[in-house]
Request: fold
Amino acid sequence: MIPEGRLDFGAATGFQAQLEQVLAGTRTALSAVIIDCAGLEYVSSAGLRVFLLAARTSQRAGLRFAICSLQPAVREVFELSGFSRVIAVHTDRAAALAPLPQGPA
Amino acid sequence: MIEQRVSVASDAEQLPVLTRFLKEFWSAAGLPPAESARFELALEEVFMNVVMHGSAAPGTQVEVSVILRDGGLTLMVENDGPAFDPLLLPAPDVAASLEERKVGGLGVYLVRQMMDVVCYQRVAARNQLRMTKRLPTGGASPRVPPGV
Reply:
């Protein structure tokens, strides 16, 4: 999934619905959910909440959940909130897709 | 000193109006783009707190001021209504596991991390929250945010 632009309070609901659809619809074929944030310029706590719920749903379903290619402003929010400790953050998509050692990178 | 002010209804639908106001101020004043997202976040989190925590009755106005002075930018959010100090919200446990993580209080926590000074005052039966942060001068020396 590739969110773009601003993930603020107004955009969070739509993004959540999209993510839920991905998580529900293709569960059998899915082994990992990777969110490429290269086009994401801004995230607030409303956006973080959606990432948290999706990561949790993925974990419960036995799916790997990771995000990659964070812009500096978005990276700062993930780091200050401590979310980068509970959600795997990769530098780019290749790293996110690489066969993983267990646990967050 | 440059000061600008905008007034919007206490309604989540008004968030884009505030974001646009701040972005326009930002480019008009030629402020460093790298600092913009921190103030946008501060404005969103504080405004949404006012809207969601019921400190402003429906139909009341929220006033936002930006004040550029002495190399620092202050964002001030004011509204009528019962006293509500968002700084008293319990801090989130930022070390909790994925299962135990909560989002409540996270917005205000982020604002406190990103701004130099955040203070709440009850002034003439209004809630007033002020957030100030120094801006790097010249733009050639980006500051490394704390904790990174």
In short: The mean pLDDT of chain A is 89.
